[in-house]
Amino acid sequence: MADARTTTTIPKPDGRRASDAGRSRLGDFTRPIAKSQRITRRRRPAVLLGLLALVIVGAIATALFGLPVRTWFEQDNELRRLDAELAELQAVNADLQREVDRAQTDAGVIEAAREELGYIQPPERRETMLELPDLPTEFPRGWPYNIVRRMIAVRESG
User: Fold this and answer.
1) Could you give the count of Cα atoms lying within 13 Å of 34 in the half-sphere of its Cβ?
2) Closest CA to 98 of 108, 86, 85, 113
3) Residues 6+ apart with CB under 8 A from 40
4) In this predicted model, which residue has the larger pLDDT, 61 or 34?
5) What's the rounded Cα separation, in Å, for the pair 36 and 22?
6) Among residues of the chain, what percentage have pLDDT more than 70?
7) Whole-number pLDDT of residue 26
8) Phi, psi of 3 (to 5 degrees)
9) Residue 112, exposed/middle/buried by CB under 10 A (0-12, 13-18, 19+)?
10) DSSP string spanning 77-96?
11) What is the pTM of this model?
12) Please, what's the largest Cα pairwise distance for the chain?
């Protein structure tokens, strides 16, 4: 017995009418909307509403992309500055560590005692020299003082 089932193929209509030939498939979106179905009756509020929407979208885009990028650059500059400061502090710490290592030796202790406390060892003699005070430059008028004034002027110019 032959297969009793038979199938037929009927093409589906594509939903387009004969009068739609050559028209855009976006026809429903480009047709004018009746005034009763519009969100706003006049065109100006719709344009203002669109501009407001663009401003809001721009603000959101700036908040999501612009501000984080600016913050990232600022943090990058701050990181470079802090790295430079860290390098300087590490150099200072290395100098201090060398000084501590030197001060922990016998020669370093003696040198520190000489500099800080004026320590001298038994065969040495200590002589203190004070700096000379500034001499007055105001002298009375008259015979011996004008010669002294000339001597001071010569010393200061040389």
Assistant:
1) 2
2) 108
3) 46, 49
4) 61
5) 29
6) 78
7) 61
8) -65, 125
9) middle
10) HHHHHHHHHHHHHHHHHHHH
11) 0.38
12) 159
